[in-house]
Amino acid sequence: MIELRSDTFTVADEKMRRAMAQAQVGDDVYNEDPTVNNLQKIAGEFFGKESAIFVPSGTMGNLLAVLTACQRGDEIIAEYNSHIFQYEVAGVSALAGVQINPIKGIDGKIPIDYLNGAIRDENIHFPTTRMICLENTHNMSGGKVLEVEYINAVAGIAKKNNIHLHIDGARIFNAAVAQGIDPKKLLENVDSVMVCLSKGLGAPMGSLLVGTEEFINSARKYRKMLGGGMRQWGHAAAAALIALEDGPKRLHEDHENCKALAEALKEKKWTEDVQQSTNICRFFVPDNNQADNFQEYMLKNGVRVQKAGNSFRMVTHFNVSQEDTKKVVELINNF
């Protein structure tokens, strides 16, 4: 079966499995797991920040950033179709007591003039704008990249207004590879970033939250509050270390494979609005019967695709080979 629903379906390879089995472990709640400590040290240096914390999921990482940077009753600005607003079960409001001000963007980017207008003035009726959250790459825009110039422009606005800038970097390595730059360059002017290790990088679980030492120390306590103290967490950290070292080197292959899928889909008269920039391809099939038939046809031929109504998503990753991609392209051409 060729799995194209998400890059979260990646399966740990033999190298990761051996590392997990052989990992040195301790109690991470006591900061005594040597493999976790090593991962966090390497991650902080890798992204050019003072410190990092290993967490079970990207959703928890984003929530920890909000809990740490904000107070109850504050507001954060995020793009309308961002993951933190659409797909994290309203945790920011329910658990952090913080509301999101969602701004409709273009290709995942909030226009700068809209962003300036969304920052609250000091007024007894208004919440305080405490954080801006950007998503890079932007899932719902077909994996669109937020360029370093745009991030730096937003960082300037955040700094001027004493606002915390957080990056939901679930696929930050895809953004860096697409631009041919070091991830540090993308993040040098941001306050915190969440990086997912279990998507395209291939670890079976885990994400990182990276920032200043003071910020991460505070986030560590909130992680415990949320039930994220994972004890002998080094088995997962061992796989994460390999993902961090090896995963980015081959992401360009995923981008090339996804581009091939998008090019095939653009040639078909039954598709509309094909979007692809990195390893995510989104498209729309306006005819209801064709939409249903396409999903059934692909499944019958050994390919799983994600469907929501008449909208589709295909995501490439290291368990989708070039040969797999050729098969999917052929299926698209023959439908």
Identify the notable features of this structure and list them briefly:
335 residues; alpha/beta; Aspartate Aminotransferase, domain 1; 2 domains; 14 helices
Structure description:
The protein has 335 residues and is of the alpha/beta class. It has helices spanning 14-22, 34-46, 58-69, 83-86, 91-96, 112-118, 148-160, 172-179, 183-187, 213-225, 234-246, 251-266, 288-300, 322-334, and strands at 2-3, 51-55, 75-79, 99-103, 129-135, 164-169, 192-196, 207-211, 272-276, 280-284, 303-304, 306-308, 311-315. It has a seven-stranded mixed beta sheet with strand order 2-8-7-6-5-3-4, with helices on both faces. The chain has a four-stranded antiparallel beta sheet with strand order 9-10-13-12, with helices on one face. β12 and β13 (311-315) form a beta hairpin. It is globular and about 55 Å long. Its EC number is 4.1.2.48. Keywords: Lyase, Pyridoxal phosphate. It is an enzyme of class 4 (lyase).
Rg, Å, rounded: 20 Å
Strand content: 15-25%
Kindly identify the CATH topology of the largest domain.
Aspartate Aminotransferase, domain 2
- Overall number of structural domains: 2
The helix tally amounts to 14
Give the SSE order as H and E letters. Answer: EHHEHEHHEHEHEHHEEHHHEEHEEEH
CATH class of the largest domain: Alpha Beta
Distance between the termini: 18 Å
**Number of β-strand runs:** 13
Largest sheet: 7 strands, mixed
The mean pLDDT is 97
Question: Which architecture of the largest domain would the CATH scheme give at its second level?
Answer: 3-Layer(aba) Sandwich
How is this structure best summarized?
The chain has 335 residues and is an alpha/beta fold. Helix content is 43%, strand content 18%.
